[in-house]
Amino acid sequence: MVIQTLSDRSLKSSVEFLSGLDQDWENLIKKIGSCHLKKLSTLSPYESLLKTIAYQQLHAKAAETIFQRFLSQFNGHFPKALELLEIDPMLIKQSGFSQTKTETLLRIAEASIKKIIPDQKEIKYLNDDEISKLYHQLVEVNSKLWEVEDELRVIESTKDFNSEFIELARKVYYTNDERFSLKNKINELTNSEVREQKDYIEYK
User: Does the pLDDT of residue 84 top 90, yes or no?
Assistant: First the structure.
C-alpha cells in the first residue's frame, strides 16, 4: 500500500488560496488547524498508469465496464507486465480499447520491465512535484523514442535507406541516452542501490 503525505508546498499554496477567499474561510482554517489530508492508493505506479489510460476520454461507467473486461483476461487481477506483453493484443482490443490505447498499455508494460516506471519502494521517497515532473519526462522521452522506431520500421519495410533513415537512426541513441540520464536521476532521488551503467564512445 502506498500512502504519501501531500507536499508541504502544495498544502501551503492551498491554505493561502482558501484563506484569501474571504474572512469566513480564513477563520475556519485557523479554527480547524493544520491539514492532515493524505493520498491513499493500493495501486502501484504501473497499475495506476494502466488504469489512467483505460479511463481516458471515457465516461466513468463505460470505462469501468471496459476495464473490468480487460481484467477478466487475467482472472480479474491486474496483469503483471510480462503477462500483459504475452497476451494476444487482439484480446486487449476486444475488451473495448482502441488500437492506440492497446499500444499504450503494452508500452507501459515494456517500460515497467525496463525499470523506467518507479516501483512502490522508489516512489514513496518522491514528493508530488517530483513525481509529476518525472512522469511527464518519462512519457515525453519514451513517446519520442517509440515514434522514431515506428518511422524506422516503415522505411525498413521499403528498404530505402536514405538520409532520413540515417537521421532517425541517430535519434535512437540520442533519445536512449536521454532516457538513461533520466533513469539515473530517478535512482539518485530514491537512493536506489541499482545503478545502470553504459560504456560507449563519447560522441557529443
Answer: yes
